[in-house]
Design a protein that fits this description.
The structure is a single chain. This protein is α+β, with helices and mostly antiparallel strands and 75 residues long. 32% of the residues lie in helices and 35% in strands. It has a single domain (2-71), classed as Aminopeptidase (3-Layer(aba) Sandwich), CATH 3.40.630. The two termini are 21 Å apart. 19% of the residues are buried.
Length: 75
């Protein structure tokens, strides 16, 4: 998932790989100008919804994904 501005600059990105029955979340990135607005959490919500729809689990690899999954373990 990549979000760009009109100048095609990447502002936020979540990199994942499908590994059989799981999605490995390898990287989350949010431009410094947008940090603190919950955008990385929104990316994780999107990948979580996608995984649920496709009946897959999430394997967090990057530190943000690991922390998000720990905080949202009730999902």
């Amino acid at each position: 998932m990549v979000f760009e501005n009109e100048a095609k600059e990447v502002l936020a990105e979540l990199d994942f790989v499908i590994e059989g029955e799981s999605l490995a979340v390898n990287r989350t990135m949010v431009d410094p100008s947008l940090r603190g607005q919950g955008i990385a959490a929104q990316l994780m919500e999107e990948i979580y919804a996608y995984a649920k729809e496709k009946e897959k689990t999430i394997r967090p690899v990057c530190t943000y994904a690991v922390t998000w999954m720990e905080k949202n373990s009730e999902k």
